[in-house]
Amino acid sequence: MNNDDFGMYHAINMAVVHSIEEGIASSCSLMAPCPWAPHAMNLLRQRPEIPFGIHLTLVCDTTNYRWGPLTAREKVPSLLDETGELFAPAKRSELLARARLDEVELEFRAQIDAVALAGLTPTHLDWHCLADGGRDDILDLTVALAGEYGLAVRVWLEPGRQRLRRRGLPVVDHEFLDSFALEVEGKSRRFAALLRDLPVGLSEWAVHPGLGDEESRAIDPGGWRVRRTDYEFLTSPETRALLEQEGITVIDYRAMQRAWSQASPPR
Question: Is domain 2-263 annotated with CATH 3.20.20.370?
Fold first, then answer.
């Protein structure tokens, strides 16, 4: 179980750490361009035992709380909308239609290098609001960067998983679960049912814990309930007991990182 969106805002940062230290989550993914990324990176420096990845970010999904690229805007114009800002999720298709791969690479490298400059060592790369990068060439770019930096990649969709299996790269066995796809009402019961029915093999859930406090409701009116219900499930003693009852072992991306490094993907 990987906690996405680390660094977006304070209430997410605290929920992510607590969900790993006191709950059942095993890792997290950091959004380097976000305002609370420095705070998140400081939390990681204080907790070197927490494995984390980089949530490569080309999208801003809040309206009144903005972040932009780490690269100078004049160097990545194809990644920006008509107002000079990162695209909203509703305009992903427009972003993907116009994004130049060389500019995507500039921004991805800026985000990876920002984490390295903070003295941190991630385990994997993934994408914010762009499943498998949104385009085959962006997926291939990310895999190449992972090979260069010695990281794994979280690949979500079956076509991408098949492509990487043919290249000898390990990926999850089963359909990827994004907690934003579940209804808020009755979510804990749904999560529990999914755990009871979990197939043999390697599965991955992307969860999005948040405290759901006043800050969350102001910044994230469309998402804070999802995040609060995720947090409640991840930190529930009943959830931990269910994992033990079902014999489910939760791992993190350190094992996948080792396997990717051994597979030596093309660069």
Answer: yes
